[in-house]
Design a protein that fits this description.
This protein is an alpha/beta fold and 345 residues long. It is 46% helix and 11% strand. A hairpin with a 3-residue loop joins strand 2 and strand 3. The longest helix has 25 residues. The model has no long low-confidence stretch (mean pLDDT 96). Bound molecules: coproporphyrinogen III (CP3). The site of coproporphyrinogen III has 22 residues, from strand 3. It comes from Negadavirga shengliensis. Catalyzes the decarboxylation of four acetate groups of uroporphyrinogen-III to yield coproporphyrinogen-III. Pathway: Porphyrin-containing compound metabolism; protoporphyrin-IX biosynthesis; coproporphyrinogen-III from 5-aminolevulinate: step 4/4.
Length: 345
């Protein structure tokens, strides 16, 4: 189907656009009272994510309410470990928790490469969303990067240090690689299935990239992201590796189309490291949205000026924080959309 607002896809292709497209990581979620109302109608996050009609509804909410230039399918990166045989729970105010984790070689026997049948609820949600969007904006599919998924499967929950997962890289690199191979194979199947169901592009979230030293990042993360990028020939791929400024040059050499930047990354230096043949996405400090309206406009303009409208997709440098006022998000979106990309050259 023809996409009416295809700004995002055109920026990715390197085409000239009249203005910079904008969306927000974690836009489908708790910032909107409309989301909380739908979530409160079911037992919790997991049931919502597994009910395709409702997942589609909350995917479209930010397009209707915030006016963003793309939708991102409502799901979570942790559906992949679940489909591999490690179910998770979402504990109120604490985040994800895995009753079973991977600690040694015997645990690997209990898991498998994900069966896509087990993720059919996500694919169904994508199909319903596409129909309901009716080509208004592109739909983004996503998955976690293998290293970030590994970190949850080994640690069993969120952590400041992910020390169990980091210890495994040193103590048992062979087992680590086996698990990363299984996650990578699962992720490739899953992302291809998302594109098959209608996702126009996909994003890989490497949320815990920044806790690894460069030598481990290269060996245990980048190598697997590279495999995914090489396998995903059907749709554009965005790589967002939070905190991996040290690896930007190598990320720039991946077979991907867009590189996401967090707010610690200097825009000019990032552009030099990544090169000019990829789009850049980001990178307003998410905490700017706690500031006054005047400051939000100021910092948004500053960010747009730094990217100079050249192959830029505006976003925050990480997911929007749950306690941000949706009116502030709307102001950010409107500010980006009110500015001509080319006038900034
Ligand atoms: C690390 C990670 C996770 N999930 C995700 C990441 C990578 C991005 C990042 O670094 O933030 C990605 C994700 N999670 C969710 C989406 C939906 C699409 C979107 O709007 O971006 C996306 C893209 C829904 C969600 N995933 C989660 C919620 C909140 C659940 C609820 O209370 O409704 C939502 C809407 C829960 C979740 N899921 C995860 C955590 C750590 C938590 C708890 C903390 C938190 O809420 O941010 C794992």
């Amino acid at each position: 189907m023809q996409i009416k607002n295809d700004l995002l896809l055109r920026v990715i292709k390197g085409e000239k656009v009249d203005r910079t497209p904008v969306w927000l990581m974690r836009q489908a979620g708790r910032i909107l009272p409309e989301y909380r109302a739908v979530r409160n109608s079911v037992s919790g996050f997991i049931e919502l994510a597994k009910t395709p009609e409702l997942a589609a509804e909350v995917t479209i909410q930010p397009v209707d309410i915030l006016g963003v230039d793309a939708a991102i399918i409502f799901s979570d990166i942790l559906v992949v470990p679940e489909a591999m045989g490690l179910p998770y729970e979402m504990v109120e105010k604490r985040g994800p928790w895995f009753p079973k984790t991977i600690a040694d070689a015997s645990d690997l026997k209990k898991i498998r490469i994900a069966d896509i049948e087990e993720l059919s609820y996500v694919l169904e949600a994508i199909k319903i969303t596409k129909k309901a969007l009716n080509g208004r904006v592109p739909l983004i599919g996503f998955a976690g990067a293998p290293w970030t998924i590994f970190a949850y499967m080994v640690e069993g929950s969120g952590s400041k240090t992910f020390s169990k997962a980091r210890a495994m890289l040193y103590r048992n690199p062979a087992l680590s690689h086996k698990l990363l191979e299984m996650i990578t194979a699962s992720t490739i199947k899953y992302l291809k299935a998302q594109v098959g169901a209608g996702a126009n592009l996909v994003q890989i979230f490497d949320s815990w990239a920044g806790i690894l030293p460069p030598y481990h990042y290269r060996e245990f993360s980048l190598k697997y992201i590279e495999k995914i990028c090489n396998a995903l020939t059907e749709a554009p791929v965005t790589v967002f590796a939070k905190g991996a400024f040290f690896a930007l040059e190598e990320i720039g050499q991946l077979n991907c189309d867009t590189v996401g930047l967090d707010w610690n990354m200097d825009v000019d230096t990032s552009r030099q490291l990544v090169g000019t043949d990829k789009a850049l996405q980001g990178n307003l400090d998410p905490a700017v949205l706690y500031a006054s309206e005047k400051e939000i406009v100021h910092y948004t303009h500053q960010m747009l000026n730094q990217f100079k409208g050249s192959r830029h997709i505006a976003n925050l440098g990480h997911g929007v924080y749950p306690d941000i006022d949706p009116e502030k998000v709307k102001l950010f979106v409107k500010t980006v959309q009110g500015i001509s990309a080319t006038s900034k050259d």
